[in-house]
Amino acid sequence: AFAYENGEFEAARAFFLEMLRETSGRYFEVYFNLGVTYQRLNRPDLANLCFEKALELQPDNSALRHKLGQS
To answer: CB within 8 A of 50, min separation 6: which ones?
Structure first.
C-alpha cells in the first residue's frame, strides 16, 4: 500500500498480486485495491475484473456496484 501512496503503481500491483496469492483471494480489500491500482495503470479491463471479483465477495457493496455502473 505504501508503494501506491507514493505513485509506484507497478510495485503496488506486484504487492497486491502477491497478497492475492498469499490469501488465496479471500479478501475483498485486496481485489478492490488491485482494481484501483489497475485503473491508475490505465488498465480498465483488468480493473473491472478485479472489481467484479470484489463484488462477488461483497455483493451488497453499493459503492462498488456504483463503480461498476450496476446501481
So the answer is: 31, 32, 34, 35, 38
